[in-house]
Amino acid sequence: MEVIKFGTDGWRAIISEEFNFENVRKVAQAIATYLKSKNLNSKQSQNSKSKNQIIIGYDARFLADKFAIEIAKVMKENGISSLITERDTPTPIVAWSVKDKGALGAIMLTASHNPPEYCGIKFIPDYAGPANEEITKQIERNLSEMTNDKIQMTNKSSKSQAQIEHFEPREHYFEYIERFIDVDAIRKAKLKVLYDPMYGSGRGYLDKLLQMYGCKTEEIHNYRDVLFGGQNPEPGDKELTELKRKVVEGKFDLGLANDGDADRFGVVDEQGNFLDANKIIALVFNYLVSKGKKGSVVRSIATTSLIDAIAAEHNIKLHETKVGFKYIAEIMMREKVIIGGEESGGLSIDGHIPEKDGLLADLLVVEMVAKSKKTLSELWKDLIAKYGTYEFKRGKIETTEEKKSALMEGLKKSPPIEIGGMKVAEVKTTDGVKIILEDKSWLLVRPSGTEPIIRVYYESKDPGILNKIAQYVKGLV
């Protein structure tokens, strides 16, 4: 069988090639074996609210709903009942439903922001956050050790007429999420908001919440399209061109977006400027601190140092993690965290599930604008007036597996002593190689775990130094 590997957020592959019904059943069986080996059934049964049950959710991708039913059949063969979402549903709501229902965990069929031809499987354990490395490795071991009789069982499952039970979590999530949002402040502001769910699962969720909170809300791309309009459902600057234009034309106060499964966010200010995740996380962190929120802050190694500056100003403990929200989640489950975020568009806050939630992130931005009585562009200008402008860039180097390994090994063994005339002050190798210059500018070079690609991230408050880092990156291969 093909080697199925779980990356930073699950297994993803091209539909009908690796991602086919046979392999989906095998992954489902590996997850079922994990659940039974960990005795989670008996553990959960001690809780009167719990059931011997797993949540199954799916996003708007081609065949995702059919794959969900196949997984339910495999679970039935293993003595585990399933509860499937009524329609395609945001990943954060599926994760939250694990806690809400007292379930064993959840299986989410999603490829998040990846191209339309991809689908994926994300396993969410009973703590309602991303599966940690230990769990992921166990599931991968179960796959590698899969015997013929287990494979036959998954084939048998495809013919099984499992009783499928569905549920609709939307209204209950709407009640829950209000505990994190100042609804009255949003209602008083009467903001005009344009929302782009990017043909994904956020439609009927964020737009409905905004309407309930008194915002004059309009939507674009608010129907299911398995091709996502011909582009990746990633809420980035390039992908949100239409949102940016229409925000200005329609004189909206804000433009909001979510990726295909709504665990990531995208934000456009009233002038049509895209504010990337680094800016939004910093703004929301600063806002939550101004509200008197207490705790630490967590960011990934690839995320802006502006967060460090805000934390230092307020004497707040800062944690830096590897790339991947699962590492942020581990700290959020361990201690009180004001906000955890990563530059790729993931965010969660204290009291919520340890999983990124693009719907909550967008709502926090709306609340921030409503309560401040300032535009988003004004809020950003205020922040950089205090802390300075942090220019951030990211990119990728396409290469071969051999060259990728050689380059990373070379950087670890012989990192540069200066870049563009600026001395290197520190080198970190916790995730790839992060080179920190004496003026606090930095460069992170890290290999993709699944592709022959090297990802690069760099940041500086000095445009000249940023240019010199960019030139150094070009010379790496």
Describe, in plain words, how this protein is organized in 3D.
The protein has 477 residues and is of the alpha/beta class. It has 3 domains: 158 residues, Alpha-D-Glucose-1,6-Bisphosphate, Chain A, domain 3 (3-Layer(aba) Sandwich), CATH 3.40.120.10; 215 residues, Alpha-D-Glucose-1,6-Bisphosphate, subunit A, domain 3 (Alpha-D-Glucose-1,6-Bisphosphate, Chain A, domain 3), CATH 3.40.120; 84 residues, 2-Layer Sandwich (TATA-Binding Protein). Helices cover 39% and strands 22% of the residues. The protein is built from 17 helices and 21 strands. The strands form 4 sheets. It has a 6-stranded mixed beta sheet, with helices on both faces. A 6-stranded antiparallel beta sheet has the order 16-21-20-19-18-17. Strand 19 and strand 20 form a beta hairpin. Helix 1 crosses helix 6. The longest helix has 17 residues. About 2% of the residues have low confidence. GO terms for molecular function: magnesium ion binding; phosphopentomutase activity. Belongs to the phosphohexose mutase family. InterPro entries: A-D-PHexomutase_a/b/a-I, A-D-PHexomutase_a/b/a-I/II/III, A-D-PHexomutase_a/b/a-II, A-D-PHexomutase_a/b/a-III, A-D-PHexomutase_C, A-D-PHexomutase_C_sf, A-D-PHexomutase_CS, Alpha-D-phosphohexomutase_SF. Keywords: Isomerase, Magnesium, Metal-binding, Phosphoprotein. This is Phosphoglucomutase.
